[in-house]
Specification:
five-stranded mixed barrel, 6 helices
Length: 195
């Protein structure tokens, strides 16, 4: 994982969907305050506001995403230049921070794409829904946290960036159980999945 700090060196807060995503980021970046939203948009927004209250001057949304561009495969990295909210609002991410992350990815030989990430308040499971979202937005990927975190960062006037790894491709369909796979704290809801 590349250096995730803002270009100004300000304290960074990050929102992930799951504890596993949090552990991956925390391993390389113990200096970042990381919260897990359990892949719930409203909770991601509340946690982002809390991180700002704790002194974070930059917010990062990082973790997994669904692919919307058919060229993207699981494991591909998407660095956001724009977040597209469910209501269609488009907000650019912090250019200097993005350039720093892109330079680090380049330097490590990690392939990536730069583009828009669409936000959605519900899991996008079906290939047909992904196609419709791609056609409507032109976004490369979709997740459930970035738009909520972006709104909080924009309201506070602080830098924001989203970096996402594709978990499922544009043509992949997720089982219905995936909608309730995480607990509120970002752990695996094993009993719900077994049910």
């Amino acid at each position: 994982m590349p250096r995730a700090g803002t270009p100004s060196g300000a304290k960074v807060g990050a929102i992930t969907g799951s504890k596993r995503e949090r552990a991956c980021l925390a391993h390389d970046h113990p200096e970042i305050d990381i919260c897990c939203s359990g892949a719930v948009s409203s909770r991601a927004g509340r946690l982002a506001a809390s991180l700002i209250d704790q002194g974070c001057a930059g917010l990062l949304s990082i973790g997994l995403a669904g692919g919307l561009d058919p060229a993207l495969k699981p494991g591909d990295v998407v660095v956001s230049n724009t977040i597209i909210a469910p209501d269609g609002a488009k907000v650019p991410t912090d250019a200097a921070w993005r350039d720093r992350v892109v330079a680090e990815l380049d330097g490590r030989g990690i392939p990536f794409r730069i583009g828009a990430i669409a936000g959605n308040d519900e899991l996008v499971r079906l290939a047909e829904t992904k196609r419709a979202l791609r056609n409507a937005t032109g976004a490369l990927a979709v997740d459930m946290e970035s738009h909520a975190v972006m709104r909080i960062a924009a309201a506070a006037g602080i830098p924001f960036l989203a970096v996402r790894v594709i978990a499922d491709g544009a043509g992949d369909e997720l089982p219905l159980a995936a909608e309730s796979a995480l607990t509120e704290e970002g752990g695996v809801a094993i009993f719900r999945l077994l049910g």
